[in-house]
Amino acid sequence: MASDRLKNRKAIVTGAGSGIGAATAVRLRADGAQVFTADVQGDVDFTADLTALDANARLVEQAVAAMGGLDTLVPCAGISAFHPLEGHDDAYFRRVMEVNLVAVFRLVRNAVPHLKAAGNGRIVTIGSTTSSHGDEGLSAYSASKHAVLGFTKSVAAELGPFGVTVNCVQPGAIATAMTAPAFAQMPEFRTFWENKAPLRRLGQPEDIADVIAFLCSDDARFMSGHGVWVDGGAMVRH
Ligand code: NAP
User: Fold this and answer.
1) Can 141 be counted among the known catalytic residues?
2) Which of 33, 92, 144, 160 could cross-link 28 (Cys pair, CB 3.0–4.6 Å)?
3) How many domains is the chain partitioned into structurally?
4) What is the mean pLDDT of the chain?
5) Other C-beta atoms within 10 Å of 181: how many?
6) Is the CB of 179 under 6 A from ligand 1?
7) Which atom of ligand 1 is the closest one to the Cα of 22?
């Protein structure tokens, strides 16, 4: 339910042209935040490939100018595809790391002065169940998402003294453009995830956005450095 709990927040949400990022921008705005959106595609405030060397610096600069400050980051942009190890080329492995990890690092680094100045900054990174587990064909993705969780913990340690909380949401299987091709090609994969979750369904982008909004709010003020599973309970079952 919408509220005014984020009414003084000034947030950047990346990956906001689709899926979880788009739902997050809607939810943060519904809770009163100003939101500056970025993506490589879609209806956003800043359009760029966020792996470009200067993209995140420009994004922070434009967001601060547009909102009059910056205290919240939600880097949602990400890519994933199944690639068995044999035939898995260096270029794709590097690309996954650049999008899912290095671009997140650059966004956070460039925003640090603003987050420190805010005194109550919030960073919510997006990991995955594969931040803690592995899966066939997902070596690059899982490596990048383990790294995002580790990055989150260290940033929490470094920025905590400045009042910044840093947490990592770990979604289960969510119905978005990212998962649609795999679910279409492998219906048994979709059924597996629906049955694995005790709640017996795939997640929707809003299921993740609502938890992100909570982590951005004052209600989560004493929570930092954690991975938060939002998976319908899927990962409690073997
Ligand atoms: P999505 O619907 O595909 O949204 C991701 C967005 O990020 C897309 O608009 C995508 O654009 C954009 N993007 C990709 N590379 C980019 C780049 N270099 N620069 C700027 N934007 C870029 O996927 P989603 O499911 O919402 O995923 C959001 C986040 O949740 C990702 O980090 C993903 O790893 C994570 N996640 C998703 C699931 C799931 O089941 N869906 C589960 C766990 C974690 P293009 O479409 O053009 O690539």
Assistant:
1) yes
2) 33
3) 1
4) 97
5) 11
6) yes
7) 26
Band (238; pLDDT cuts 50, 70, 90): low
Does 18 sit in the ligand 1 pocket, CB within 6 Å?
yes
Atom from ligand 1 closest to the CA of residue 175: 41
Structure confidence by residue, pLDDT tens digits, 54-87:
999 999 999 999 999 999 999 999 999 899 999 8
In this structure, which amino acid lies at residue 131?
A: S
Rounded Cα–Cα distance for residues 231 and 238 (Å) = 14
68: domain CATH number?
3.40.50.720
| Domain encompassing residue 25 | 10-171+207-228
- Model pTM score: 0.98
* CA distances to 140, 164, 198, 211 from 119, in Å: 35, 7, 39, 22
User: Does residue 84 lie within any of the structural domains?
Assistant: yes
193: in domain: no
Residue with tokens 């997640």: 203
% of the chain with per-residue pLDDT over 70:
100
Q: How far, in Å, CA of 141 to CA of 130, rounded? A: 8
State pLDDT tens for residues 93-120.
999 999 999 999 999 999 999 999 999 9
In a domain, 36, yes or no: yes
Selected catalytic residue, list 60, 106, 130, 141: 141
